[in-house]
Please model this.
Amino acid sequence: MEPKSLGELISDYLKANKMSQEQFAVEVGVTGRMIRWYIQGLRTPTGNILAKICKKIDIDIRKIKL
Model:
């Protein structure tokens, strides 16, 4: 099975937890706009933010297709 993209993982997490992009953004320390860009694949988070996202969605960073 091919690893999922960061955008897919964030989107799946938001749906499963009935959370808005803005709520998720506050919890990881970015803007809602940045979360939208990550989901759309327009941007890649910096290492620090990526680590926070992985911790929040409980996934090993090595399992993400960037």
